[in-house]
Amino acid sequence: MKRKYKAAKNGEEKTAVLVGASEKVLRDLNLVISRATSTLEQLAEQYANLSLSGSFSAQVGSAVRLLEQHYASLEKKGVDPEQLQKVKQSLDHMKRKLGLLNVARKT
User: Fold this and answer.
1) What DSSP character marks residue 92?
2) pLDDT tens, 28-77?
3) Residue by residue, what is the 3-state secondary structure of 36-75?
4) Is the N end or the C end of the chain the one with fewer CB atoms within 10 Å?
5) Roughly what angle, to the nearest 10 degrees, separates helices 81-106 and 56-77?
6) Which residues contact 37 (CB under 8 A, 6 or more apart)?
7) How far apart are CA 57 and CA 102, in angstroms?
8) Average pLDDT over all residues of the chain
């Protein structure tokens, strides 16, 4: 890409080189996300098939609700902002996991 960019004669050609590189990176990232989602779906299905597992997304959903209640409780108590931020980060992380599980289940 560096060579193509340096060889470009004007701004339009340089822009075209950058757009092409960006599109390739985007395709690569989409491929990685697709593979990871597929793997997550397979793992969630395997987990759900275990005798004691039940619904994995339901367990994650319960964890999210518990963290939301904990966060609200700490917020009302006026705890240290740093501690509150840590709980918020954990909550956001669990919400992302739940979102991924829901997407994987739908595909």
Assistant:
1) H
2) 988 888 888 778 767 766 766 664 444 677 888 888 888 899 889 888 88
3) HHHHHHHHHHHHHHCCCCCCHHHHHHHHHHHHHHHHHHHH
4) C
5) 160
6) 100, 103, 104, 107
7) 7
8) 81
Pair (3, 39) in one structural domain: yes
Task: Report which residue type is found at 57.
Answer: S
How many angstroms separate the CA atoms of 51 and 75, rounded?
Answer: 38
Distances (CA, A) of 62 to 5, 55, 65: 51, 11, 5
CB 56, CB 101: distance < 8 Å: yes
Same domain? For 10 and 48 the reply is yes
For residue 97, what are the domain limits?
Answer: 55-107
